[in-house]
């Protein structure tokens, strides 16, 4: 996954794709393989530091089916035997997903977008809710979620500084060789100015939403792994890079 040359404003797309890779990661045994081998999983097994919600509750707060949740949970438990994910774990996952880049900074922001209570750990429920929205949510839900990533301090709007940090983190993760500092800034200024529709220095969710839904490239990227009946096999992974 090495990027050379100009990103041509693809940061928005790459931000979202970066989030979705997490989904592929946790679902890597065929994401949601509804076939055999799900019965053996005991979701309620209380040997963890964090005991997950009942599967009925998870079904009611996500869009995953029972079998999908079991598969997701099995993968989750393999990676996170204690039932929680730390920021360190996110970083190591992203390092694995983007081995040629520096993914730590992006992983840090992605982690805090998932950690809804601004805690140091994410539990399975938070992860499942986030992944469910990213994969199966409406366009608006996906955009709200992505907005939350950009709105680093979660105060309801994106500032120039926040935009610059996210753009830099995406560049560090996917661009090779790394761009110069001025180049991150130039890109993020361009995006910010486009998104800040009334030019007041703050991008609200409404402005963010308007800019994104009117851009087919962004909309399509949000739908890349979208599946109602989830049967992603990972093969999309290669094609999305050919924009
Ligand atoms: C749409 O978004 C892409 C990716 O961020 C960007 O390269 C392109 O310039 C945008 N198009 C318009 C018309 O804003």
Automatic annotation (TrEMBL):
<feature type="domain" description="EF-hand">
    <location>
        <begin position="183"/>
        <end position="218"/>
    </location>
</feature>
<feature type="transmembrane region" description="Helical">
    <location>
        <begin position="12"/>
        <end position="31"/>
    </location>
</feature>
<keyword id="KW-0472">Membrane</keyword>
<dbReference type="Pfam" id="PF13499">
    <property type="entry name" value="EF-hand_7"/>
</dbReference>
<keyword id="KW-0812">Transmembrane</keyword>
<feature type="domain" description="EF-hand">
    <location>
        <begin position="138"/>
        <end position="173"/>
    </location>
</feature>
<keyword id="KW-0677">Repeat</keyword>
<dbReference type="InterPro" id="IPR011992">
    <property type="entry name" value="EF-hand-dom_pair"/>
</dbReference>
<keyword id="KW-1133">Transmembrane helix</keyword>
<dbReference type="InterPro" id="IPR028846">
    <property type="entry name" value="Recoverin"/>
</dbReference>
<protein>
    <recommendedName>
        <fullName>EF-hand domain-containing protein</fullName>
    </recommendedName>
</protein>
<dbReference type="InterPro" id="IPR002048">
    <property type="entry name" value="EF_hand_dom"/>
</dbReference>
<keyword id="KW-0479">Metal-binding</keyword>
<keyword id="KW-0106">Calcium</keyword>
<dbReference type="InterPro" id="IPR018247">
    <property type="entry name" value="EF_Hand_1_Ca_BS"/>
</dbReference>
